[in-house]
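WARN retry 2 of 3 for item q-0093 after timeout on previous attempt; input resubmitted unchanged.
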Amino acid sequence: MWLIVTDEIDDESVGDLVSRARASGMTTLVSRSSARAATEADAEFVLPVLSPNWTMPFMNVVVGQVMALRLGEAIVGLSTSRPV
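OK item q-0093 returned
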């Protein structure tokens, strides 16, 4: 589960969501600003720069696209220089 933590969700709810997801066997990734509390997620992506709340989803979309590209390159052997 990839949880993007914005101002609309409090740290207690984040902790609850992460613990429930992990208990059900999911691998968890939390994206948060450096101003938010750390979590018990399997991995955390901490944005080093504080930015307006409305930009968080957009920044994480870019990160997600890069992660998907790198995963495709690593697992499937996709190449951006030689598209299928």
